[in-house]
Q: What sequence folds into this?
């Protein structure tokens, strides 16, 4: 079971802090799964960084199924 944490725009659009579900595969595959499940955030996901257990990872990182994944949108402001 993985826990996917949402922040920023993704959290606002989905009105969820997190979801939990069974998943193994790459972060890229997870991103695609989330885009299919929540098409309203598909374009935002393309700009997000992904952290696994509080460490930034590339999209080719392979999840084992027991991690915490944070989806972090770009931060802006002035």
A:
């Amino acid at each position: 079971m993985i826990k996917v944490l949402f922040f920023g725009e993704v959290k606002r659009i989905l009105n969820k802090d997190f979801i939990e579900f069974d998943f193994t595969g790459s972060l890229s595959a997870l991103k695609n799964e989330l885009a299919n499940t929540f098409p309203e955030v598909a374009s935002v996901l393309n700009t997000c960084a992904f952290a696994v257990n509080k460490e930034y990872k590339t999209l080719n990182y392979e999840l084992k199924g027991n991690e915490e994944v944070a989806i972090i949108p770009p931060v802006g402001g002035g």
Summary: The first strand starts at residue 2 and ends at 6.
